[in-house]
Amino acid sequence: MKAAAPSRRDRIRAQLADLKMPGALEALDEVLTRVDGGGVTASEAIEQLLGAQITLRNNRRLEAAMRSSRLPAIKTLEDFDFSFQPSIKREQIDSLHELGFLERKENVIFLGPPGVGKTHLAISLAIAAAQSGRRVYYGALADLITSLEEAKAAGRLGHRLKILTYPSLLVIDEIGYLPVSQTGAMLFFQLINRRYERASTVLTSNKGFEEWGQILGDEVMAAALIDRLLHHCHIVNIRGNSYRMRKHTDLSKILHSPPAEPSPPTPKGTRARAKEKTTI
Ligand SMILES: Nc1ncnc2c1ncn2[C@@H]1O[C@H](COP(=O)(O)OP(=O)(O)OP(=O)(O)O)[C@@H](O)[C@H]1O
Ligand SMILES: [Mg+2]
Fold first, then answer.
1. What ligand is nearest to the CA atom of residue 81?
2. Closest alpha carbon to 242 in 139, 128, 119
3. Phi and psi dihedrals of 279, rounded to 5?
4. What pairs with residue 103 in β-bridges?
5. Could you tell me if the CB of 177 is within 6 A of ligand 1?
């Protein structure tokens, strides 16, 4: 007896498998049932199938990025409660998540006291970048410096700097919490110098720029570093309460009195171009 000819549904299934589109393949039956039931039009069905494939691809990219980028957690824009932090301009954060700054090799700096969401937003930018297929890498400043110091001691500094220059987006978190040695500051400068105008860096700090000289133990180097960072840069200055302390408002008020606000970017010795072109 002759085998029955494959149905159209079977042929679509085979085509999606051939095209390696498992997300669309998995969604196919459900989408076709909706079409048969008159719930969606043909164009809506195509949109839903392709959407299912894109979602799967983005999730896979994210999983791969989580393995290679050392992101400490998954934090997304959707999880961020803007009503808790009214000093943040939502349009600015939404626009950054469209990732044009990566194309333009611009930097982003989140400034503000503890717990206001600096790391959260830096990670959510990195996740958006990873989902769009970009290579991302995350490190707290102290850890990045340690890795550079170790590479230097092993005679592999050039190689390590190359690796850290490669990602389209590098997050350098927690500038200002731990002291940096003189060699560490020099290595940090070298890293920023390498990435300058080549790839975007997203930084977070609890300290205003005028304190970076003290953090790095060298006012001149800090000014040169800030100069490069601010040349093409978006600054998000967050003023508000710690989200971690939201259930302890009285204690939070005591700890943040007077409020630890970072001051605006007026580093000594910064060339005029930095001020002019900074996007705030
Ligand atoms: N507006 C917010 N909506 C939802 N979650 C938030 C918000 N702000 C912060 N969080 C959460 O609160 C915690 C602390 O935030 P985060 O680590 O981003 O703070 P931070 O500004 O980096 O602080 P620190 O300077 O101490 O590193 C995280 O779990 C983060 O996801
Ligand atoms: Mg943080």
1. 1
2. 119
3. -95, 110
4. none
5. no
Question: In angstroms, rounded to a whole number, what is the distance separating the alpha carbons of residues 25 and 163?
Answer: 37
Which domains, from first to last, does the chain contain?
A: 8-67 (no CATH), 70-277 (3.40.50.300)
Q: How far apart are the two ends of the chain, measured CA to CA in Å?
A: 75
Q: What percent of the chain has pLDDT over 90?
A: 79
Structure tokens at 267: 């580093």
Which residue is it, tokens 């503000």?
Answer: 112
Q: How far is the CA of 87 from the centre of ligand 2 (A)?
A: 17
Q: For residue 259, what pLDDT is reported? A: 52
C-alpha to C-alpha distance for 5 and 276, rounded to whole angstroms: 69
The pick from 108, 119, 178, 238 for probing ligand 1's pocket by mutation, whose C-beta has the most ligand atoms within 8 angstroms, reads: 119
Query: Across the beta sheet with 200-205, what order do the strands follow?
Result: 136-140, 169-175, 200-205, 107-111, 233-237
Tell me if 84 CB under 6 Å of ligand 1.
Answer: yes
**Relative to the CA of 79, which ligand 1 atom is closest?**
4
Once rounded to an integer, what is the mean pLDDT over residues 89-109? 97
pLDDT digits (tens, 9 = 90+) for 184-206: 999 999 999 999 999 999 999 99
Q: Quick: pLDDT tens for 151-183.
A: 999 999 999 999 999 999 999 999 999 989 999
pTM (2 d.p.): 0.81
